[in-house]
Amino acid sequence: MAKAKSKTRYNFVYGAIYQRKTKDGRIRWYLDYRDEMGKRIQRVVVNAQTADEAGLALQTEVKRVFDRAQGIKEQKRIIFNDFAPLYVDNYAKPNKRSWRCDDYCIEAHLKPYFGKLDLGAITPLDVESFRAQRLEAGIKKSTSNRELALLKRMFHLASDWGYSADNPVAKVKLFSERDNLKERVFTADEETKLLAYCAPHLRPIVVFALNTGMRRGEILGLRWDQVDPAGKSVLVKRTKSGRDRSIPLNEAAAGVIKAQRKTSPGSYVFPSTKGKEFMRTVDHSFGHACRLAGIVGLRFHDLRHTFATRLIRRGADIITVQALLGHYAVTVTQRYTHTGADEKRRAVEALARASESLLLGGDTPVTEKSGVQVTGSSAVS
Fold first, then answer.
1. What CATH number does residue 122 fall under?
2. Whether this model's pTM surpasses 0.70
3. First vs last Cα of the chain: how many Å apart?
4. Within a 10 A sphere around the Cβ of 154, how many other Cβ atoms?
5. pLDDT tens over the chain, length 381 residues
6. 279 by DSSP, 3-state: which?
């Protein structure tokens, strides 16, 4: 720091600070610098008591001048508690059907930890500490991933809106969820048992789910204006992927539609049994039916898994299954399709028969059941 002859002024490359006495003898510090247009600025630093405090104020002002000259927007300061309602009102509510889930997570978990922190001052270490605290409280790693995904989206928008320079969550690696995938497929025996114990209002819903692969919310919210007048297809709207999809109805699903037309004169195909316009959930009745049938570990969503798996086992290609399920990517569909033990055994047995035929000097074999031709090179490789 180069000093002038008078110790009341300190000169820097980017400006200067100096002090003056007021009429009542108090010392006040001033800044001396130029703005982005080259105009000289001299102004008092109201709360500065020392040369160091005045020097920091000068650096802050010079940085603002540089940012404006480079077209860099100044970051607005806001604490997490004040930013949260901006996210919910301006993004979650207009864009997400599940915005209430976001709102609950923010109020119950994110605000208590980050609430009073300046949004721009939150670091990756703060995020890691929050995650460690939540895991210690007993949540699953998949739940932690959902919470960090929400937090990451909030910081992404905060950056776009000028409240945060970067996204600290982007530097935190999420947990792998490969071991959490639930491969539960409904067997034919379980289907018979469950349907025997289903309440009258639940039975057609279960049958419809097994034969269409529709999500629970899509089924309960299905309106008659989405059903083809001939009863041969339904148009699913407002899906999770955001795209409408048409599902053809097989004989079983069409039979459900035909029966519901006689008993459901309102707007919804599966109306509520409690006087409301439509059912919000069937979790209680589905769980009760499973308990009566002695079926353990079955979720309603597993009916969708079963639909996809049965299609694959009957020869449907993965792209067709993807279209019926309404997935945006085929990799998502692969999580819902599971090869059973019988299919695996038939596959390896076919390979054994092919190898045996080659060892006996036979021609290029064709398996009887699968109809898959196995060449000599592939059979022994």
1. 1.10.150.130
2. no
3. 76
4. 27
5. 444 444 689 999 999 999 998 888 888 999 999 988 889 999 999 888 899 999 999 998 898 888 778 876 666 789 999 999 999 999 999 988 789 999 999 999 999 999 999 998 899 999 999 999 999 999 999 899 999 999 999 999 998 888 888 899 999 999 887 655 566 788 899 999 999 999 999 999 999 999 999 999 999 999 999 999 988 999 998 666 667 889 999 999 999 999 999 988 888 999 987 756 778 889 999 999 999 999 998 999 999 989 998 998 888 888 888 889 888 777 777 766 655 556 666 667 767 766 666 666 655 444 444 444 433 333 333
6. coil
Is residue 235 within a helix (H) or strand (E), and if so which, with residue range? Answer: strand 233-236
3-state secondary structure of 208: helix
- Is residue 278 domain-shared with residue 199, that is, in the same domain? yes
Q: Which helix (H) or strand (E) holds 9?
A: strand 9-12
Q: Are residues 242 and 302 both part of a single domain?
A: yes
Structural domain includes residue 75? no
Of 164, 180, 196, the domain-final residue: 180
In a domain, 324, yes or no: yes
Residue span of the structural domain in which 122 resides? 80-180
- Count: domains in the chain: 4
Same domain? For 95 and 59 the reply is no
Residue labelled with tokens 């930013």: 83
